[in-house]
Specification:
This protein is an alpha/beta fold and about 200 residues long. The chain has helices at about 10-20, 40-45, 65-75, 85-90, 160-170, 190-200; strands at about 1-5, 25-30, 55-60, 75-80, 95-100, 120, 150-155, 175, 180, 185. The chain has a single domain (about 1-200), classed as Alpha-Beta Barrel (TIM Barrel), CATH 3.20.20. Helix content is about 25%, strand content about 20%.
Length: about 200
């Protein structure tokens, strides 16, 4: 099982996550308590192995600004968490992870209009688009088939529930942020425990 650790803001935590087996590191450039400056993200990216995906998270940002940050921070992917259209997603120069808020089975129908190979399924928006630490009913995904998509499951995941989430949703990758934090800060032991549990289920 592939794992993305999102909301990274410092080199030490990023290196720890990678050493524990993380496959992707997420940097939030939208409004969030985990928001990072592109220059700081670049310092972290420069310390990461080439095979690790460096993902920038954006919400309703302009195409021009996304392009600037891709270049400045040396991102390999972007995650679009807003109301971006299929055409907008297709205009981005690196692979796009299109995020969808899933509250009911009907919400899955929104996915069909997007050509993005990667999709992220998250809980409905709270204060921020994503990163709110709440889960949705994974049973909605039971039996769902997106044969041409790489599904990333997000929303309220932690060491205690990740096994059940993977068993039900069968995603390609899982994405965690608040579930590996203590008092709003990334917790290295929680990162290790989460990745170990997820990888044991592969």
């Amino acid at each position: 099982m592939k794992v993305k650790i999102c909301g990274i803001t410092d080199i030490d935590t990023a290196v720890t996550a990678v050493s524990c087996g993380a496959d992707a590191i997420g940097f939030v450039f939208a409004e969030s308590k985990r928001k990072i400056d592109p220059a700081e993200a670049r310092k972290i990216v420069d310390q990461l192995p080439a095979h690790i995906e460096k993902v920038g998270v954006f919400v309703n940002e302009t195409k021009e600004r996304i392009a600037e940050i891709i270049s400045e921070a040396k991102l390999t992917m972007v995650q679009l968490h807003g109301d971006e259209s299929p055409a907008f997603c297709e205009s981005i120069s690196v692979p796009v992870i299109k995020a969808f808020s899933i509250g009911s089975e009907q919400d899955l129908s929104k996915i069909t209009g997007y050509k993005s190979q990667w999709i992220l399924l998250d809980s409905p928006s709270g204060k921020y688009r994503g990163g709110n630490g709440t889960s949705f009913n994974w049973e909605i995904l039971s039996g769902s088939k997106f044969p041409d998509k790489k599904v990333i499951l997000a929303g309220g995941l932690n060491e205690e529930n990740v096994e059940r989430a993977i068993r039900i949703a069968r995603p390609f990758m899982i994405d965690v942020s608040s579930g590996v934090e203590t008092d709003g800060k990334k917790d290295k032991q929680k990162i290790k425990s989460f990745i170990d549990k997820a990888k044991s289920l592969s």
